[in-house]
Amino acid sequence: MLEPWNNKNLLPPPVQTCYSDEKIDWRYLKQACTNAVNILSKQSPLHNESALLSRFIYKYDKKFRNDIGYRIFKKINTTLRRYLMLNIIKDIENFALTLPNDTESDEYLPTRQMLQYVLVRLVSFSKLMLRISVCCKKAAVFYLDRVKRGESHWMSLMPYALLCRIWSLSNVLLQHSCSWYAQMYPFLRNLQLKGLPFLPNGYELPVNLADWLDLKNLENLGRFQWAHKEIIKVDKILVEDSESNTVDSLMMYINEINKDNEQIEMKLLPSEPFLETNIQTIEKYVDEGEVISREHFKGVDNGEAITREHFKSFFEQPKKEAKAKKGAYYHSLDRVTNTKTLAEFVNKEETYRYEQNIMSLTNHLTFMQWQALKTTLLRLCGDNLSNNRKIQRKFLQIWKKKCVEIS
Predict the structure, then answer these.
(1) Taken in order 133, 134, 137, 143, is the CA torsion positive or negative?
(2) Residues with Cβ < 8 Å from 165, sequence gap 6 or more?
(3) Which pTM value belongs to this model?
(4) Fewest CB within a 10 Å sphere: which of 19, 32, 199, 233?
């Protein structure tokens, strides 16, 4: 069985008042209802952000349908739609109308069931705002990672900013809902229960909504362990001593790192004394009556400095120059003079594109752009234009519009 706050088809209790012998501060209760209505009626910024979010989902649904952040993004849209269906303003207004005015007697007050219904709706509203806040934080991790990596950054920056704005608005409304609940809940024991009970048997409303939602750990909700690191391990050497001489401890830490690096270099490369001893031992030995001196090592060829571009040219493959054979087809725009040469030009161009030949004139066009150009040119071949100059002029206009201007 669903809990009352999770039931969207929950019916309200009958609107009625009853006589109360106990005097309560109904003005404070009415003021809490008025504040809630005033704040909830000024949520046009949240509604605008919700409309922008739904349009983003409609436009990029196929592009990001497999992205984890986008799936969480769609959960936020679903939660915002349920928030718009809640219509909590009308429920609070109906309850506030049953409270007495200054001119009326304060002996007749609304029933306890009516206040329970308002509190249940506040719990539903706070749950929706909490889910929006948590999902915004989860989805923002993935979009921020895309921005840092530069992957579709212009399509990731806009939803990331949108998530930040919705997250801030939902957090404010979450805090307000907890405040309204805390102001209304103490009046439950003062109002009388009349008629059938509204809540199911054994179900009790939370006394403190903020504790029930665990808002103290709101910063940790929706946090990934691999994305957020709260604890940073610092070396023990950097701990301040009694004299608070942090500079000395920092220098000691740097010196130890340098010593470790020097030991690693000693293991990898021979030191200078090692080279000196080798050269001295070479000088002592004589091979066939000739002494090997230091001057033999000075004439080593160190090479010649070259630029990076020249170095890259060693690995480039030689470009094949297309040489036109005698009697071969010459692929050019000037050959198009009538419908026959136009059809031949289109067939040759498609062949060159398929073979990725350098003689192709539309290598810079995408597949869809070439298909659009090809369809237009073939339609021109079907037109019965008696004058060949009209065909040539029309062909050049289409080529300039769909091939030259695009590049």
Answers:
(1) negative
(2) 45, 49
(3) 0.55
(4) 233
